[in-house]
Amino acid sequence: MKRHWRKLLASMAAVLAGLVVTTALLPASPASAAALTEVTGFGANPTGIRMYLYVPDRLPTKPAVLVAVHYCTGSGPAFYSGTEFKSLADQYGFIVIYPSTVRTGNCWDVSSPGALTHNGNSDPVGITSMVRYVQQRYNTDTARTFVTGASSGAMMTNVLLADYPDVFAGGAAFSGVPHTCFQASAGNPADPSQQAGWNSACANGQISKTPAQWGDAVRNSYPGYSGPRPRMQLWHGATDTTLHYNNFGEEIKQWTNVLGVSQTPVKTDTPQPGWTRTWYGNTSAQPPVQAISLAGVGHALPMPGQARMAISFFGLDQGTVPPSSSPTSSQPPLPGGCTASISLNSWNGGYVATVTVTAGSSALNGWTVDTTLPSGSAITNVWNANGSARTGAVSFTNVGFNGSVPAGGTTQFGFQGTGTGPAGATCR
């Protein structure tokens, strides 16, 4: 079993490296008093996990809450620094809880009997206590509490939606497995090895059940519950060898059954080259189940730009926050049209550019950003936009989900390149 955990830990070390790059994608933000803070004494916590909290400076009257659950080898502070949820919280005014496990290897318990039961005796209890603490302290909108996570955190996302459908309104799982797929093998439940044991059959994609069987696994985690069930967004790389891609299909079976919708997609599109997104139940922006498959991608999610799509699935990008008290908040909106600004994170021989598109006094229905790369610079990767070239004069156009920008609103895309990044950009 230790050998398999070492495999996962090594894989997640690679994910951590990718997340460090993602941190560089975040644009510089205005001076802020908001900071990640550790909270203690938040309630029932049978496994002694730790709570880190980010509360933006500006919040609506009843803010939403997002729980962001880290991967193996990670921590709450690492997930805070390595993902875009903090910057999105600043933009849209929601609170983010970053739990931290204290178990060896920093993987979550998603396999013990106590983890797979409503009000059990393991990690889900502590995470739910964090949520209730924040709901009471900050007078949040309890109908808008969501959870997301990567790898082990994605597994925990599945578990939390099953154990606590009365707490969470939705989840987004990046490279996970179905609820109960990782359950401990037969043995002594009191044995510590059963608390977060490796399940090779599940990891290798060898466990297949009917939709009803998977659905019953969710329903049996909270017997007698008859209320609404949370929506689910699922992400998986098609070449994932750590948590096999077969688990993606099993998750779809599970959550379509739980939510009572057909396994046949009602809509399919390609938000980025190589990404296949399917809707189940309806074609709204927040359907019961949505699934995104990424061709040629392994165990390395979330990638840049995906956090924003998860936020959109939750509906958290529709919130409004009070205006800043800074002098710029009273400035009139920009003239019609749009502007573009570039934030660069550079190193010797390369850079990552984050481009912010801002609409003027009129809403945008599609946009194009133009820039010129310095001699010797070449783009190697683009996200949340389509690019026309890789060197010289380059134009970027919106993809399907970020073409509409309200008057005075913003959207972002990014690209990575070799050499030196461009000094500026224009929008039309």
Protein model, in words:
The chain is α+β, with helices and mostly antiparallel strands and about 425 residues long. It has two domains: about 325 residues, Alpha/Beta hydrolase fold, catalytic domain (Rossmann fold, 3-Layer(aba) Sandwich), CATH 3.40.50; about 100 residues, Immunoglobulin-like. The chain is about 25% helix and about 25% strand. The strands form four sheets. It has a ten-stranded mixed β-sheet, sandwiched between helices. Strand 8 and strand 9 form a beta hairpin. It starts with a helix and ends with a strand. About 10% of the residues have low confidence. InterPro entries: AB_hydrolase_fold, CBD2, CBM2/CBM3_carb-bd_dom_sf, CBM2_carb-bd_dom_sf, Esterase_phb, Plant_Biomass_Hydrol_Est. This is Poly(Hydroxyalkanoate) depolymerase family esterase. GO terms for molecular function: hydrolase activity, hydrolyzing O-glycosyl compounds; polysaccharide binding. Keywords: Hydrolase, Signal.
What is the number of helical segments per DSSP (H or I, 4+ residues)?
A: 9
Write down the domain tally: 2
User: So, CATH architecture of the largest domain?
Assistant: 3-Layer(aba) Sandwich
- The CATH superfamily label of the largest domain reads Alpha/Beta hydrolase fold, catalytic domain
Shape: globular
> What is the mean pLDDT?
86
The secondary-structure element order is HEEEHHEHEHEHHEHEEEHEEEEEEEEEE
CATH class of the largest domain: Alpha Beta
Instruction: Using the coordinates shown, work out and report the CATH topology of the largest domain.
Output: Rossmann fold
Q: Label the structural class.
A: alpha+beta
